[in-house]
Amino acid sequence: MAFERVGVVGLGTMGAGIAEVFARAGLRVIGVEADAEALARGRGHVERSTGRAVDRGKLNERERAEILGRITLTTSRDDLSDADLVVEAIPEILDYKVALFKDLDRICKPETVLATNTSSLSVTAVATATGRPGRVVGMHFFNPAPVMRLVEVVGTVVTAPDVVSGIADLSARLGKTCVAVGDRAGFVVNRLLLPYLNHAAVLLDLGVAGRDDIDAAMALGAGLPMGPFALLDLIGLDTAYEVMCVLFDETRDRRHAPSPLLRELVTAGLLGRKTGRGFHGEETAHRERDRAEFITFGVEGDDAGPIVEQLLRAGFKTSDEPDVVLRLADRPVIEHAVRLPTPSAMVGVHLVGDRVAEVASTALTSPAAVAAARDLMKVIGRTPVPCKDRAGFVVDALLYPYLNDAVRMHDSGYASIADIDAAMRLGCGYPAGPFEMLESIGLRRVRDGLRALYAEYREPSFAPAPLLDHLVTAGLSAFPRP
């Protein structure tokens, strides 16, 4: 399937980036916008993007001129009549997309492939609005399109197989990694990413931990590129809210219902970076709490020795009646605290990676014990993340359901392990895909952590995926791969 002349409808930041990607690959591009003003903005996007590439040494001036010369801009959709492929990149409103595809179906030659860049809407609903549903496909680029290497190619139950394979081949020609998936809300990346972000907002709303502490836990502890609230502000809270609504409409999973806090911020017009305030913004100064001048400590739990040695070397002392008892645990701590003569002194400590220590306070823990535990964790070189004594604390409570969702996605036959891992690495910049993370953490540990989350929250989606449970029962430590 040959694609040499490509149309792009909608030249906002994403559409202009897609046009640039095609032009960089040597294709002729027709960019279409609604009016001259929008067309000028689209031209500006491409010129600035290619100009930055020249400044960084990625292009020279001759190459930039050739790329710009391959792009023709117009306000007339009729100029797309000879295109081999048309990609739409207009706002994520289904009625707008349906109306556009009906018009493109009238304008374009019968063999033209029509593609939507939607990130979550039904490709089938768009396809069936045309007289060529077999030649309609999803082609989801990631922002910024010239930089991000992933393209999700979405086929529907009526998309012709050669159309999916042809778009996949074209994606490779563009220098992209293609992940072919079915038409499910959110596809792969948004279907896994957005529930995790929404879950973070739920934990914040429940008071399990603070905004900055959750961000630090996931960035420093889980090794993700940024924390969930920083990422939500970058994506745009309105965009996240809309995707969650689409997911919930399809699945009716309670975990896909937008969190009340997310809804409230969107209603207030606090949408993140685009408005200057979202989860972050208008920061207030917080005075650093005074360090305790003298702290005696005790440590309980497995592998306590290294922490005891570090604190003794730092000059702290143990005691029969310590100021704080650090309970090393990844399960609720209250069961251990009630056995102490002074339960208010016990604080849970869960070490995450090499840089983070979750500091969990029970219903009985005193503020002084929390402050002491926080300071001791700083002494041993870890970032303390204060949180409530809840199953999974912060990192595991957010990470394990995400991993579980990936297992369910694969087990349903929706996408392969390799494609899911590639999608999350390339689409989100994660250091590893979910199955790579699962096998690194340990299947049994994740399964048991999910059981603890389910026991506490009674959320059906927290129950371990049957495939994960079966592999652990069988004594396997990795997922079977072809």
Short overview:
With 482 residues, the protein is α/β, with parallel strands linked by helices. Helix content is 45%, strand content 15%.
Overall spatial form: elongated
At the fourth level of CATH, the homologous superfamily of the largest domain is: NAD(P)-binding Rossmann-like Domain
Number of strands: 14
In DSSP terms (H or I, runs of 4 or more residues), the helix count works out at: 19
**Biggest pleated sheet:** 8 strands, mixed
Please, could you describe this protein's structure?
This protein is of the alpha/beta class. It has four domains: 5-182, NAD(P)-binding Rossmann-like Domain (Rossmann fold); 189-267, N-(1-d-carboxylethyl)-l-norvaline Dehydrogenase, domain 2, CATH 1.10.1040; 296-388, NAD(P)-binding Rossmann-like Domain (Rossmann fold); 395-473, N-(1-d-carboxylethyl)-l-norvaline Dehydrogenase, domain 2. 45% of the residues lie in helices and 15% in strands. The chain is built from 19 helices and 14 strands. The chain has helices at residues 13-24, 36-55, 61-69, 94-107, 123-127, 161-173, 189-206, 211-221, 228-235, 237-251, 260-267, 305-313, 334-337, 367-379, 395-411, 417-428, 434-441, 443-457, 466-473; strands spanning 5-9, 28-32, 71-74, 85-88, 113-116, 136-141, 150-155, 177-182, 296-300, 317-318, 324-328, 346-352, 356-361, 383-388. The strands form two sheets. An eight-stranded mixed β-sheet has the order 3-2-1-4-5-6-7-8, with helices on both faces. The model has no long low-confidence stretch (mean pLDDT 94).
